[in-house]
Amino acid sequence: MTGKKQIHLAAHFPGVNNTTVWSDPESGSQTDFASFVHFAQTAERGLFDFLFLAEGLRLREHRGRIHDLDVVGRPDTLTVLNAIAAVTTHLGLGGTLNTTFNEPYELAKQLASLDHLSGGRAAWNLVTSSDAFTGENFRRGGFLRPEQRYERAQEILDATRELWLSWAEDAVVADRERGVFVRDGGAPVVEHRGEQFSFAGRFSLPPTPQGHPVLIQSGDSDAGREFGARTADAIFSRHGTLEAGQAFYRDLKGRLPRYGRAERDVTILPATTFVIGDTAEEAEGLAAQVRRAQVSPQTAIAFLEQVWGRDLSDYDPDGPLPDVDPDPEGVSITRGRVRHEKDTLAVARQWRELAEAKGGLSIRELIIETTARQSFVGTPRQVAEQMDTYVQENASDGFILVPHLVPGGLDEFVERVVPELQDRGSYRTEYTGSTLRHHLGLARPTAGAPSARAAG
Amino acid sequence: MGRGTYLAVEVSGAGRHPAAWRRPDAHPEALLTAPYHVGLAELAARSGADFVAVPDSFAPPGDDPDLVPLRLDAVAIAARVAPVVTGVGLVPSVTVTHTEPFHTSKAIATLDIVSAGRAGWEPVVSRTPAEAELFGRKPAAPPEELWREAADAVEVVVRLWDSWEDDAVIRDVATGRYVDRDKLHYIDFTGDFFSVKGPSITPRSPQAHPLVVLRGDEPEALPVAGRWADVVRVAAADLAAAHSARQRVRAAVAAAGRDPDDVAVLLDVEVLLGADAGSARRELDALDAHHELAASSLRVVHTADALVDMIAEAVASGAADGVTVVPLVLPGGLRMIADDVTPRLVDRGLRPPVAPGTTLRDRFGLPRPANHFTGANA
């Protein structure tokens, strides 16, 4: 084994956005358990750190109706992860669970159950939603002032951690002779009184095989980065150029010392797409095909409508951009999806300039150009080399791969790229431990010694 | 519906008896591990049971040091065993008082997906101030209110199961549409306790409606069971009381405008078996010496033959449509069901040698239901 920095890989089960190509003849069921088994077992064969599931708690709407152009629907995150635990042995199991529509005691019990039953493979991606739109599916509604999002996330995390680590490590004695199952004082009552949550009681489980599940955080704002630096074991970022990756990496890792954390305590994983071919040319050709499949004519118009805030269904996707300007009042045309474009007039201006500079791109060509570029394209060796460079030069610690096909989207990567990464000495050749914390090189938090210390 | 003698088993921890974990054949150190629960489910499957009930609650078990205060999430246990243990239904309890019906609906639908149509659900209420305190959102409520809320929760869960028509996913490349959104339905539920918009995020599951199992012991619970249950569990001290309980359930089902023969009533039977009555009794005495357990329903502390006789009499006399065996000790208590009780039930023609169909609904002779939003049969 060389002393080279080792790459961490995670696998994102393709989800409900247009990255997932459902129109391909190879595309299988998004909900059959067989698809999850195939995907998870492929990731495990590829020695990945973990499988990851996203979550959305209300079907997206576009122009007042359920958005029908992308994959719609998915199974329940925790339930499917528990089932996947039965058909895998080492693979970490990461799920997204919303902090706005769940209560700490229940979440703590559910996540601890996954960690116990999987032998220490659970991870929780905390997301906080503030929209009343999703809240319409829940008892307490969902509205949270945007500035309270991280406040709530921090408090639910503090509360769940208080529960997870409330029992002493040696609390369970199970002494048949003396008739003592939990030693005196081993499982104290937890009392939490905060702004967002107020509860009290004894937790029903001891610390899990991992102490508590691995914590994942995404979120690119300053508050999001700070929250991640303070609490997360792994961070999902957006993939960009080597330089952009290095800037994010430096910024995030630079925030760790103030929380008493070291660089190795946080694994940074950008969301990454890839296309593999036998030759560079073939890979480029396949990548272009995938991009066209990801942006159907109808999808191109829908994307445009998100920026324009208007009904553009009469426009030809193979024709030029609309002459009419975006309607600044129409920005809520899509609901249930995170928007990145704030100033739509500026976006429209940029897009028009880009379309002209590229020799007169059509609507569909422009949307492909602006939304669908893959991260790594090439032969297996080239892709491995690009990924290795990205990690060795500290633009990330690895990648969360987002394939475009269910269930076979990882097959070729595992068969052809993983061996190349291994040949480069940058990737494990076997699992050396059984917990996700072990895969990530993280210490196990123990009761009375939280993994991350609060500032000040 | 198909008439038979239904058999369910309830499996929790080291068994119903609080001292069961102290027996030499118990596995107190393994109660949180997957192999332990897979082993129990395998025994349940080998016993030919129609389903295994996995209880759950937020209620704290009490402070006595000799009690086992461990509680894993029941849906998690069911999902963990589903892919590797086939041939038995899986019915976790999920509380409805402090939880979100939207989450519950997709969790049970997903259990149905990962078990290929063997899921059920026992909705239970959280009664105590201690449970309310774990959430801190509202005080404990009286039974009337708890069950009125439970009725709303069950309705939301079931409506969400129907919020996707079976053929909603169309993958129509020509029009670029993955789903036909006319086949997705808002449920627009509004009640006294919550409102839920829908649709679910999870497509309609193999059974469409996983089995709804409800308790029919309290008067306040009966209307909910009458309206929504596919199977009703009752507790009774003897067969005469069971007979009355079953009649109450059937009346509640009829009052809801349904056919009482469509709803199986299963009597809880606490079981500890031995080679002879005396040895079974001594086993119980030994456990009770550690920590006494009052019977919560009819109890058979006797031989396998005695249990089979009791089940036969219960069904023949109309006291029950079957039983939920609640072993006082695990895994031994369940092993004796599989090894000694089930073969006798089959020999006497009370249980089929091979289960009918593959889904849990098949087991109870229940067809795949029509969709509430279309009335169309699958």
Can you offer a commentary on this structure?
The complex is a heterodimer of chains A (456) and B (378). Chain A is of the alpha/beta class and 456 residues long. Chain A is 35% helix and 16% strand. Chain A contains 14 helices and 17 strands. In chain A, the strands form 5 sheets. In chain A, strands 1-2-5-6-11-12-13-17 form an 8-stranded parallel beta barrel, surrounded by 6 helices. In chain A, strands 4-3-15 form a 3-stranded antiparallel sheet, with no helix packed on it. The longest helix of chain A has 16 residues. Chain B has 378 residues and is of the alpha/beta class. Chain B has a single domain, classed as Luciferase-like domain (TIM Barrel, Alpha-Beta Barrel), CATH 3.20.20.30. In chain B, the strands form 3 sheets. In chain B, strands 1-2-3-4-9-10-11-13 form an 8-stranded parallel β-barrel, surrounded by 8 helices. In chain B, helix 3 packs across helix 5, helix 6 crosses helix 7 and helix 9 crosses helix 10. The longest helix of chain B is centred in the middle third of the chain and has 19 residues. Chain B is globular, with a radius of gyration of 21 Å. At the A-B interface, strand 4, helix 2, helix 3, strand 8 and strand 10 of A face helix 1, helix 2, helix 3, helix 4 and strand 6 of B.
